[in-house]
Design brief:
The protein is of the alpha/beta class. The chain has one domain: HUPs (Rossmann fold, 3-Layer(aba) Sandwich). It contains 16 helices and five strands. It has a five-stranded parallel sheet with strand order 3-2-1-4-5, with helices on both faces.
Length: about 375
Amino acid sequence: MSEYKICSRCVMDSSDPQISFNSKGHCNHCTDYLSVLQNQNNDQQNSKIQLEALLAEIRKDTSSKYNCLVGVSGGVDSTYLAYLAKEKFGLRPLALHLDNGWNSKLAVKNISKLIRKLGIDLHTHVINWDEFRELQLAYLRASVLDIEVPTDHAIRAAMYRTAKDNGIEYILRGYNRHTEGIIPKAWTFYKLDLNNLLDIQSKYGKGTLDTYPMMGTNEMKKIEREYGLKTIAPLNYMGFDEESVKTLITEKLGWTPYGGKHHESVFTRFYQGYILPKKFGIDKRRAHFSNAICQNIMTRTEALDFLDSPTYDIDTQNLDREYVIKKFEITEDEFKAIMGQPVRSHFDFKTELKSKIRKKYLDPRNPLVRFVKRKANFK
């Protein structure tokens, strides 16, 4: 049995089966992240020049009503990016929101305020709930780790199709390495793997995916090639102080905080705060807190204290559990059975990924993963 280890600088630990430590006890995650931040800080002027060059290219597009597409979720990063696109970058953005049936009330209000205050158009892609419910249930029944693939895959597919249909050449992503730079490969799976998605659905899902937005890697590359579609992440070229950003979007757009990271979605909140830690032994707060530690926003002691507390409010967890079970139209016993099933690898199903990439992702045959699983509190 492998020994449990935790980083002496951040709070990443061996719940990541591929984590490594140097002679000082510092893990590869914070070491790599600090190196990236240092390089970015040393190259701020060049990053500014690069971003301005990209924005200048986008502004040249006068052939359509919109010159960029921005995904909005009601969260911090996407709200800030939409604000920058319209108010600071001088772009003509079309906002896109994917409604998968799990929006919190706060998320809906935040998006509504954003659109009204900025005066931009919004296209909302509403997923067929019956199809989406069965796809999510297929992932739950398959007992694979990344149950967020159905949402993330649909978002990317909807973005590409909306951009293509509106003659938009640039997609602005809200990805921000400042707050998401530390995310172990073993904690997620490749979101664009259509082969994996369809195989899981065929084995564990019911019904069809006639209207669900899906798109394989080859089709995406074809759209990029034929329509000149490009994706950029402007926040990676800029400094980012999350508290200052929250203050700004609150004052300018009436944005309302919703709790933890990605808690604008009820399912994501329950998945990250309940399913992941209880079934897979993964607490994503470790990554979020480690980002904050590296940016001197939080001390390691504070992070460890937070990790000793529930992932989020217990009463809210109980309400979320009841809501999720009811919305999925399953019984309490069915949910308990799902939570108690042995963890399986995404690689047990068809995949676009080559076998050599297997070791980068969660594989239940890895002895360390079996150790972490035994440590998890199954209920």
